[in-house]
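sorry for the late reply, my laptop died twice this morning and i had to redo everyting from scratch. anyway the thing you sent over, i finally got around to it. pasting the sequence first so we're on the same page, its 461 residues, then the predicted structure underneath. double check i copied it right bc i was rushing
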Amino acid sequence: MNPFYNPMFLGKILKRYIIDIDRLNRINEESLRRYQDRQFRRLMRFADTVPLYHEKYMQVGVNPTSMTSIDDLQRLPFVTKDDIKRHYPLGIVSSKIKKTSLIKVSTSGTTGKILPLYVDLLDIVMGLFAYMRTLHEYDMSVWKDKITIIGDFAPHTAESGYVTRGLQPHFNLTRMFKNIQWLNTNDEPNKVMAAIDEFQPDFIGGYVGMLGHLALLKDSGLGDNISPRYIAATGSVLDSFLKSFVEKAFHAKVFEVYGATESGLIGFQCEKGRYHLMSDLVYAEFLRNGEPVHSGEAGEMIITKFHGKGTPIIRYNAINDIVAPFKGTCSCGKAGALIKKIYGRNDLALYLPNGTVLLPSAFSEIYSKLLYQLRTNKVKNTKIIQRDLYNLEIQVVIDEALRAIGPSVEEIFSFIKNGFEAKTGPDVTVIVTEVDAVDTSQGPRILSMVDKEKYTIARYL
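ok and here's the structure:
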């Protein structure tokens, strides 16, 4: 039976819609804490029915049903990507849930390793409501405004699972929300641009890379009918210069939305510019060497997801993002934790001789400048290979259709080389080489061969 024909399921959705979307605007910190405690106790009871968690907690002598508050979270062991892979498929879902009622999704495979997970339809609906929360912040409505979503609809991805295999077959999403346009970030930017130009949305949400390419096309004179009020960027670090370039190209305000396949949406920027965690949907810890970091200090984010009946995510340490929390309040009045800065993934990092770790937020600026300074998108793909602390190779694939247009390949290579040398310093040799294609089958697009076990981190950049 289609669950959307079930009055009880529809009742749950209606309740969530009324209560959940604007919860952080209505409650104070004390009420949020009580809510987190309740959600955590419910999550612990559910986790005890999932073989992965039942076995892991038995090994360390922890009884999940004895957990009473979110403070007890620190008594639990971390859950790794390997834990989930070892227990896949039956060991990562509850023995009380029919696996046929769940939908399989996978991480994007940025690091060359795809991780399969399961979500349920209510989990997917909560993901939609979380995104609606960000729209409400900017007085946008899925019922009234024209909205373009540029997602990653490759077959295995979370977006494909949520929309193509989740909501659409059960809910007829395109008929229900005729004012929402769904586009694929894997399509050519010119194709995406033409579709947006025809649709003329009030809001565009998409991945940072695609938004940069669209801004360059807009800056070149295309997309006369595209004039959104707001643009939401997600998927990777958005540096301030690229953000400014996108805002000027489209004459629209750009804000960031932060999430992961495993957890769903994690946070977003409010109108005041502060980065808020969705603290009623997820709970984040920020650790360095196993200890909490201070406000403003960079630490590894450990995530716990409160909702869903698919694969539980509890003290999961494989989001791999380095994030600096901020202890304070925002004048917007929302309850919940704040983020000062997202540095990017520590499994896509480069390591310098002086103990500095270059995270994606540092070197993504170099590629962004190709768009807003050199005004070119002829770099089709790249791979960064760090063979040791002192040698860095940047492999570049040039779009043959654009080779003769704009700045020369030599100028682009010099620009990339100078950009990395400015980040790495004089002790690191940087070479830039052209290749026909980059091989990501044996690893990620950023590959460091430095022995991390023997490396002492002094700071993140």
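The chain has a mean pLDDT of 91.
thats about all i looked at so far, will dig more tmrw
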